[in-house]
Task: structure prediction
Amino acid sequence: MKKYYTRACNFYYGKLSKKLIKEKKTLPLCGNKEISFDKIEIFLKDNKKISSKIVDIKKINLLPKLVKIKVLLDIKKITSKRKFLNKENYILMGVLNMTPDSFSDGGKFNKTNMALKQISKMIDAGAKIIDIGGESTRPESKVIPPEIEWQRISKVIKKFKNKFPKTLLSIDTRKSLVVKNTIKNKVDIINDVSCFKFDKMIYEEIKDKNLWKVIHHMQGTPQTMQINPKYNHVLLDIYDFFETEINKQSKGNYSNKLILDPGIGFGKNLKHNLMILNKISIFHSLGFPILIGTSRKRFISQISKNFDSKERLGGTLSSILFSLAQGIQIFRVHNVREIKQGILVFQNLLNKWKKSTLAPMELEALLIPVI
Result:
């Protein structure tokens, strides 16, 4: 069976982007006129055989009828505004792990006063969302009882909305008991790395609730995910996973309140992670905001080797800026202030482009192709 996928590519930025959109030479990405594109990459999956070609947006009408219909439907989603962001072009999600064993900051913020202080610090640094977790899901981590997980975070969750009423509260959990208790305390986002498969009762807790849900991809479980992960084509396999989950949600009342997370480092090796980041703009054609969590992940050390560092800030920032340049909007990070600073400088540089014969950044040229 043949299946087609559409990826926006060849991006333009800032004043140049706005000028080209006005001249109808490019199309806005996710409704944001400060980033636009004039080409698409069309993938064809024919059973297990994958091929692709780059097409100028002006030549879409020359495509075969069925392909043209699919591409035009995808472009409508690619160019539509993402409601979650309101007037923001991107959002930082600050990470708060209230665990003794998280891979990079276990034990640092598992006291209530320390946690609240860190939340305030991240908000002041530019975080619009705080993602709170009481169970580590690092590779080979152990499952803990839901009662213990809730006990770790309960005091902070109960105080959150009174202390930080303008900040979105996200809960990083796989447990229905924890979700039930956080809903009572006005949680805004449910971020379950198992995509609501670990505890089937979660659906009962979120049914008919006005909540955002993160559709997160993970191959296997935290205990098994890094044991020789395999894909036919990681980019398209994850796309198909998202599509299936979106269709599942459309049967309920949740389909317009979804956020997509390809799960960097969750059941992926270095090659998989690079392939996802290299062409992550493919997921825009699903029509939902995209979240990535590359902060301090192991793939950074696999690349940097002898130049690895404790917080992996340089590698984190590089991956975020690379993704931002493809229109990714939500970034889950530990070092909020440093990432905010990097984005502000990067955006300022991009927005200074006034005229160019080429796109300021042709992303495909920046990474060695990964097949």
User: Anything to note?
Assistant: Residues 2-83 form one domain. The longest strand covers residues 32-46. The radius of gyration is 20 Å.
